[in-house]
Write a structure and sequence with these properties.
The termini are far apart. This protein has helices at residues 7-10, 21-33, 39-46, 61-73, 78-90, 99-106, 111-124, 128-135, 145-154, 162-171, 178-191, 193-201, 205-220, 226-236, 242-253, 263-273, 292-303; strands at residues 277-278, 283-284. It is elongated, with a radius of gyration of 27 Å. It is mostly helical. The longest helix has 16 residues, at 205-220. Helices cover 60% and strands 1% of the residues.
Length: 312
């Protein structure tokens, strides 16, 4: 390609190209579903195009030309501009000339930029598993990792709970946002109560208690049945430290957890499992040690989902 800064050269395959109405509607719908921000919008911001939603998708050839001009006028490095243009060309159905791949080759767009943009493009199209094929590549430096984790955890069309965990454990990005931390933790807890318990311990002290209480909620606050019973039993038999024991008791006795079905039973089972007595006002550290038969008997109540709300 002679000059990517010249629109007619970039779109030599069809200088009068116009986005189809179907493509425009799909992009608008995808943006709305993604909390009104696509990943291409984030890339536009990096170029200084703050009001990207007014520019993309372009609704006419004139708009497309104006959009191209805005990108070129950016003070960003050429490879950043070329990356955004590569994304735009990916919107165009492959013709005999394969405009996106032809452009990337002609400007020697580095492979890592091409892989990254491919991943962003698939995310914005709602093809999450395909996106992770690109975004999990070792050659990439994680970019927008918290935003990706949050999208995978919360997008209404993303129903595979394994995907956010697969991305997180592959990339291992630091999580600094509270809402992202909670969204990710809910997926970990759904997968494994025990794994979530130990993962929460590795987080900042300021987040640990919040996550611990979220773990209790995810285990005990749900539809009555075998799954809730199993998760409750798994929770109650975890190796809490002294601080976690206090959090557990206070949350189920005085906090939001006191409204959970089986909250009192959980405290009693925990007391039995740890060899103490529960008085209703707290654990009695001097109480007589309970034997394993009692633990098994009470635990079986959870196993069979018999911990039900008190009748009014």
């Amino acid at each position: 390609m002679d000059d990517f800064e010249d629109f007619d050269s970039l779109f030599a395959f069809e200088p009068n190209y116009v986005y189809s109405e179907q493509t425009i509607n799909r992009i608008v719908k995808n943006r709305r579903t993604a909390n009104n921000e696509l990943f291409i919008d984030r890339l536009f911001k990096a170029l200084g195009l703050e009001k990207s939603s007014n520019l993309y998708p372009p609704r006419s050839n004139h708009d497309l030309r104006a959009f191209h001009e805005k990108i070129i006028e950016s003070t960003s490095p050429d490879h950043h501009k070329q990356s955004v243009l590569y994304y735009i060309l990916r919107d165009i159905p492959d013709k005999d000339t394969h405009p996106a791949s032809t452009f990337a080759t002609s400007v020697f767009l580095p492979e890592k930029y091409r892989i990254f943009i491919d991943g962003m493009w698939y995310l914005d199209r709602g093809r999450f598993e395909k996106a992770l094929d690109y975004l999990s590549e070792p050659v990439l430096i994680p970019t927008f990792p918290e935003e990706i984790v949050y999208l995978l955890c919360t997008h209404p069309d993303q129903r595979d709970d394994k995907l956010p965990l697969a991305y997180y454990y592959t990339v291992s990005p630091p999580i600094t946002s509270s809402k992202v931390l909670q969204a990710l933790f809910s997926k970990i807890a759904k997968s494994s109560i025990t794994e979530a318990f130990f993962w929460a311990r590795k987080q900042a002290e300021s987040s640990h208690r919040q996550l611990f209480e979220q773990l209790i909620s995810s285990s005990m606050d749900g539809p009555e049945g075998e799954d809730r019973a199993r998760r409750s039993v798994e929770l109650i038999h975890l190796p809490f430290n002294k601080v976690e024991e206090t959090w557990f008791e206070k949350f189920l006795r005085d906090g939001r957890g006191r409204t959970f079905a089986g909250a009192k039973d959980a405290l009693e089972v925990r007391a039995i499992a740890t060899g103490r007595s529960y008085t209703g006002r707290g654990w009695d550290p001097d109480g007589e040690e309970n034997n394993g038969m009692e633990v098994s008997a009470v635990g079986s109540s959870f196993d069979h989902g018999l911990m039900t709300p008190p009748r009014g």
